[in-house]
Design a protein that fits this description.
The protein is mainly alpha-helical. The protein is built from six helices and no strands.
Amino acid sequence: MIYYRLTSFTIKNYRRFESHINHPSLSNIKEATKDNLIDWSLSSKWFKFNGRQDTTSIQHTKDTKWKIRCSTLSLPTLDIMHRNYPAIIGNNSTLCFFCDNTL
């Protein structure tokens, strides 16, 4: 009975991962996965790593959020904000918020 549960959890995890990786915004990650450019076992260890002393804390949550944003290329950098929100950021010549130079 216990082996059945472990197997069903593994299948559910694969299905959950597959539905996640099929999201249109993750197409480049999906292609890198097909080309074996991503070491998922190492990525899994990186996601599970907790450099904090407590198991749950606000800082650990922030660290995990940062890891997810890094891995999905969704950190709020100016080029990504321009790609995701073209109406808010403006035209193709993206200006620096601080010095008004074109990036």
